[in-house]
Design brief:
The protein has 246 residues and is α/β, with parallel strands linked by helices. It has 9 helices and 9 strands. 37% of the residues lie in helices and 19% in strands.
Length: 246
């Protein structure tokens, strides 16, 4: 008897990915699509993306999609969900988007308990716009706008969005995961599916933060970038669940 080990998610289109070699956005896209398939919500899904690498999403998912201004995806998702409460609505945002330009939007969407799901991709940099320092850039990390490394005395320490949003009553599920190994990819899928189920149960706001790599802007090979993530990002951004609805 044959056994299916892997299959392309039905909710992915056959458009080739346009992400840089070694970028883990493609893995996250597949995991999200697989969760949509398993929950049977493909026909009712609306994805909301905004400026950044995540803004390339619409061609890759076989769902309805909209493209938002930088940082405004939670506001747009709020309007869509309130007007169409029977639809499944999620945002897909990077750290420069969600943790900087869109900080107010994400905090207040969580505070209001909006019934949306959020995929937050943290690669510690503005990936699409030139590799500038982001609010999540690690202390000492070099970027195009911090060539000598982030100075915490001048710029503050990197913001931990999951820990902060977990303190908000309206947030019902918050977890940080990674996609650097097969084992962690399986855990990431479990968390994303649970986040989606939080919305389907009508419980409130949920977010999964995914630690991701940016080999191009980090100036590293794909394999070295995965090691850098484990050695540098995970100690500051520990994986785990910060809030659960059960």
């Amino acid at each position: 008897m044959s056994q299916v080990v892997y299959k392309r998610a039905d909710s992915l289109t056959k458009v080739p990915f346009t992400f840089c070699p070694g970028c883990t956005h493609g893995i996250i896209h597949h995991v999200v699509a697989a969760c949509i398939d398993e929950l049977g919500v493909k026909g009712d899904t609306i994805s909301v993306s905004s400026v950044g690498c995540g803004g390339m999403n619409p061609p890759f998912w076989d769902t309805d999609s909209i493209y938002s201004m930088h940082g405004r995806a939670p506001a747009n998702a709020t309007g869509i969900k309130r007007m169409n409460p029977d639809k499944f609505v999620f945002t897909y945002q990077g750290d420069g988007d969600l943790a900087s330009i869109g900080t107010a939007e994400i905090v207040h969407a969580a505070h209001r308990g909006e019934k949306i799901s959020v995929i937050f991709v943290n690669n510690t940099t503005y990936g699409m716009t030139g590799g500038q320092m982001a609010p999540t850039t690690l202390a000492g990390q070099k970027t195009t706008t911090s060539p000598y490394g982030r100075d915490a005395d001048h710029c503050g320490n990197p913001i931990r969005m999951s820990e902060m949003l977990a303190t908000i009553d309206g947030a019902k599920f918050i977890e940080r995961v990674s996609v650097d190994t097969p084992a962690n990819i399986r855990k990431a899928k479990k968390a994303i599916k649970r986040s989606f189920e939080c919305q389907l149960k009508g419980l409130g706001f949920s977010m999964v933060e995914v630690l991701s790599t940016c080999p191009t802007n980090w100036g590293q090979s794909p394999s070295d970038s995965l090691k850098w993530l484990r050695d540098n990002m995970m100690p500051y951004y520990p994986l785990g669940n910060f809030k659960d609805y059960e």
